[in-house]
Amino acid sequence: MAATIGFDGGSSRWQTISKKGTCFSMTTADRERTAENWASRGFGCDLWIDPPGQRWEDFTHRTDEVVMVIEGTMEFEIEGDVHHPKVGEELLIPASSLHSARNIGNSTARWLYGYRRG
């Protein structure tokens, strides 16, 4: 089950907010800071770029994945639940979850993704 986590930019603490459809909110979508945070939690961090209308349907992975939109408008569907994370929000895709990623905007979307290492 996914858990929603919130980042308090003033105190540099993460706290659990809810257990339904995971979003991790940060004050900025700073890639370097995000990569450091993800590494401390055992995740990689790479950039993916999708043109308008790009769809990646029905994927599963053996490990947890995190994604964060840094530009554009993306839609992620995880086990039938549709999420529209804002720029700077992190979404956790649990291992073995059927998921899709879609650029539903009119411009190029850039998003960070990382798989749990080990």
Question: What is the CATH topology?
Answer: Jelly Rolls
> How many DSSP helices?
1
Instruction: Order the strands across the largest sheet as they lie in space.
Output: 2-1-3-9-6-11-4
CATH architecture: Sandwich
Fraction in helix: under 10%
- Name of the level-1 CATH class: Mainly Beta
Q: Given the C-alpha coordinates, what overall shape results?
A: globular
Total domain units: 1
What is the topology?
Elements: E1 4-8, E2 13-18, E3 23-25, H1 31-40, E4 46-50, E5 55-59, E6 65-71, E7 74-78, E8 81-83, E9 89-93, E10 99-103, E11 109-115
Parallel strand pairs: 1-3
Antiparallel strand pairs: 1-2, 3-9, 4-11, 5-10, 6-9, 6-11, 7-8, 7-10
Explain what you see:
The chain has one domain: Sandwich (Jelly Rolls), CATH 2.60.120. The protein contains 1 helix and 11 strands. The protein has one helix at 31-40, and strands spanning 4-8, 13-18, 23-25, 46-50, 55-59, 65-71, 74-78, 81-83, 89-93, 99-103, 109-115. Strands 2-1-3-9-6-11-4 form a 7-stranded mixed beta sheet, with helices on one face. A 4-stranded antiparallel beta sheet has the order 5-10-7-8, with no helix packed on it. The longest helix is centred in the N-terminal third of the chain and has 10 residues, at 31-40. The model is unreliable at 1-29 (pLDDT under 50).
